Amino acid sequence: MAATLKDIAKKVGLHPATVSRALNARTAHLVNPATVAKVRKAASSLNYVPNPMASGLRTSRSHTIGVVIPDLTNPLFPGMVRGIQDTLSHAGYTPLLVNTDNDPAAEESVIASLSARRVDGFVLATARREHPLLAELATKFPIVLINRISESVQASSVAADEQHGIRLAVEHLCALGHTQIAHLAGPAWSSTGHERQQAFARAMREHGLTPARKPAAVDSWSLEAATKTALSMLDGNTQTTALVCANDQLALGAIIAAKKLRMRCPRDVSVVGYNDMPFMDLVDPPLTSVRVPQHDIGAEAARLLLSLLVEDGTMPVKHVRLTPELMVRSSTAPPQR
Questions:
Q1: How many angstroms separate the CA atoms of 263 and 256, rounded?
Q2: CA angle, corner 292, sides to 287 and 293, nearest 5?
Q3: How many Å apart are CA 83 and CA 259, to the nearest integer?
Q4: Bridge partners of 254?
Q5: CB within 8 Å of 266: residues ≥ 6 apart
Q6: What's the CA angle centered on 60, arms 55 and 66, to 5 degrees?
Q7: For residue 2, what pLDDT band results from cuts at 50, 70 and 90?
Q8: Model pTM greater than 0.85?
Q9: Which of 16, 191, 253, 289 is least surrounded by Cβ atoms within 10 Å, i.e. has the fewest?
Q10: How far, in Å, are 68, 137, 157, 296 from residue 321 at the CA level?
Q11: pLDDT band, residue 77 (cuts 50/70/90)
C-alpha cells in the first residue's frame, strides 16, 4: 500500500498539515528548513509519491506544465527538457512535452490542447520576434521562454548570454590572427538569429574590425539552407578566412559548402559553431563551438516557472542569462592566406 501523509507524520512526529506544507514547493518556505529536510528524508524512506489529483482538487491545479519545443530532433533541446523534467518532478509537477516543427498552425493547436488539459503554466522555446499567440498566452498563464526572448511580449526567459558567447568566438579567431571574419546568421524571423547577429556586429566593433562581408542569413535552421547560403558566401570569396555561425547546424553546413568548393577547413576557412550539440567533437574536423549550458537552462526555467506559480503572477518579469564557454577544437586555426 502506498505511503500517505499520515504515515510520514507518524514517522516524524508532526501534524499531517505540517508534513504537507514541508513537501509542497509552494509552502515549504513556511516551515523550518531542518523540519523540511527531516520530512523529505522520511518521505523518501517510505517511497512516498504525491497524489496530484487529490492535490489538484484542493488547489485547483493540475500539477502539469506544458513544454513546447520547436524541433525535438534538434540535439540542442533534449538536455534542456531533461533539466525541466528533473526540476519539475522534484516539486511534484509533470511536464507535458509537445513538438511544433516551427509551424505556427501546429503551435496554436498544441497550445490549445494543453490549455484544455488545464496545465498550470508553460515553458516555451518557440518565440519568434513577432509572436501574437505568445502575447495572448501570457495573459492567461504563467510562462517562461527558454533559449530565446520575445521583443513583443513581456515574459520571463532563461537563455545563454549571447553577447558573451559570440564575443568568445570572435576573440578566439582574433587571437589566431584572423581579421577577415564573416557571420553566417540565423533566420531574420528568429529572436535567436537576430540577437546573435547583433552580438557579432558588436564584438567585431569591440575589436576594431569590419566584417569581411555583410552577414548572410539563412531562411531556416536546416542543414540544407545552411549549405546553400554558405556556398553563396564562400564561392569566389578570397578574402574571408573565418566564419562565426549562429549555431552548429549552420556551421556544419558551412563545412560541407567549403568541401564542395574544394576548400579545406581550417586551412582555407576556420569555422566556429554555437550551442556545442552532442557529437560535435566527432565530426570532421571536430567543431570549435560555443557551449551552451543546456541542462542548466532547462532547470532554471523550471525553477523560474515554479516561482511564478508561488507568486500567482505577481512576480516581475525576470531574464536569466547563463554563461557559455568556448570549446576549441580542430575547425579553427591561424589563417593561411
A1: 10
A2: 130
A3: 37
A4: none
A5: 285, 330, 331, 332, 333
A6: 90
A7: low
A8: no
A9: 16
A10: 20, 23, 8, 11
A11: very high
